[in-house]
Amino acid sequence: MSDKPLAAAIDGWHTLGEQPHLIGTRCCGCGTYFFPKQTHYCKNPDCDSNEFEEVELSRTGTVWSYTNACYKPPAPFVAAEPFEPYTIAAVQLEKEQMTVLGQVVAGVSTADLKVGMPMELVLETLHEAEDDIKVTWKWKPVA
Amino acid sequence: MSNEIAILGAGMHPWGKWGRNFVEYGVAAAREALADAGVPWRDVRFVSGGATVRCGYPGYVAGATFAQALGWQGAEVNTSYAACASGSQALAAARNKILAGECEVALVIGADTTPKGFLAPAGGYRPEDPDWVRFYLGITNPTYFALYARRRMDLYGDTQADFAKVKVKNAAAGSKNPRARYTKCFTEEDVAASAMVADPLRLMDICATSDGGAALIVSSVDYAKRIGKGDAPRIAAISTVTPSFASGVVEMPDIATDSAAAEGIEAQSFRAALPIKAYEEAGIGPEDVDVAEVYDLSTALELDWIEDLRLCERGDAAKLLRGGDTRIGGRIPVNPSGGLACFGEAVPAQALAQVCELTWQLRGQSGERQVEGARVGITANQGLFGHGSSVIIKR
């Protein structure tokens, strides 16, 4: 790994640091959470609010399901050469009552996961760019 | 029943991967449907097309494109785009026109030419587009199918061998279907030997994209009776409802589900909601269904659909499969056409192809694939952006 600086793969979607959180919004009218952020209209059919507050989502949840990617996805995905398969999990957040997809940290395979298993959010490299290393959120089994 | 229309004719161009102009496939399907109906082209007063977004402007105005190809004769046209449910939405438009008394006979038609290789989003840096985001993060279409499949394994005890059994069953049915693209029979060992794509799904668990075309000639029941076809299969219901907030199942191309945190909001399953309106509209229940054509984008997804259609209790679809209940000759045959496993997906034609198959089944014209005594059939499909459909036909 190089000594390039770290940068978020997608700006403003999560906090940086040791205990990262996804950044979403919460409707001021009905309390519905949104990730990615929703700032113009609430999608709850019983709510016509257009006021939202930015919130950090829970950084732990439980596995809804999981899989892996055995083949290199097409662009805009930037794959390392040679391509290394990676694991993917859908994790349910209790307070937000929603499920969020993400890669699982390197070294964890589908054989290590089970529906209902507790997971936490961490940051890990998505790919290395010319000027920096792009990091994104990934799910990691709670030790 | 006053809200029924008759299916006078069905036609399909075989599915394949030829890369020819989609209009050719549609015209071939339309001509077969017209001949099957015994209706002259000039009697068709409404042409309702399912759009294709992959074939340029002629695809966006598919209704007009097919009407022109068959020879302008002054009919009215419509084009519907509803992803995988485009054909059903085009069918619903034709039904409305007929039931409103504005026309007696309509052609409903869809055809597609699919590109080779991965379906990828437009380039650039576009985090406002969920389809771009998920590819950027490494989440492809098989990811979603595999998440649903794996959840079945952990929750209900389904196995990869069960998923392989779906492929074996559908391949056996498709081997007797001259319109299918893949007509080879496979064993569970063949499936197990194919490459892993997205654990637990292998290459042979996942459907391909295909070229193809399908068409229906539909009419008022009065018109059907006047031409001596009063006993033709009828469209008894068309459901094209949207999901209800909050959608609790993560759907392509989204990175997250809706949140069900607000008061009075519960997580909902879109797939399970689709047939509810169809059953209500037809005034029948799952126990009345003799045959089903469902959208098996993956083998495991066929099992989800069987439960969504309430053909068995939630979690029991693999039991049905293992007992042979869902094969031709079983208690409730599913995908006697061979399904997407044998056809591959030709988006604007696929929902119509499902209705074509049920039409032939209900008429008793399916030869070696015949579901004996079939009188009620149901379809189900789901696509992107809240589109999906379920159609019930009966005779």
UniProtKB/TrEMBL annotation, chain A:
Q: Which residues form the ChsH2 C-terminal OB-fold domain?
A: 54-123
Which residue numbers delimit the ChsH2 rubredoxin-like zinc ribbon domain? 17-53
Pfam (any one):
zf-ChsH2
- The domain of life is Bacteria
Recorded protein name is: Zn-ribbon domain-containing OB-fold protein
- Species annotation: Parahaliea aestuarii
TrEMBL record, chain B:
Q: Which residues form the Thiolase C-terminal domain?
A: 277-393
The organism's superkingdom is given as: Bacteria
Q: Which SUPFAM superfamilies match?
A: Thiolase-like (SSF53901)
GO MF entries = acetyl-CoA C-acyltransferase activity
Quote the Pfam families the UniProt record gives: Thiolase_C_1, Thiolase_N
Tell me the ranges covered by the Thiolase N-terminal domain, including all copies. Answer: 7-220
Report the InterPro entries cross-referenced here: Thiolase, Thiolase-like, Thiolase_C_2, Thiolase_N
Matching entries from PANTHER family are given as: ACETYL-COA C-ACETYLTRANSFERASE, NON-SPECIFIC LIPID-TRANSFER PROTEIN-LIKE 2
Can you say what this protein is called? Lipid-transfer protein
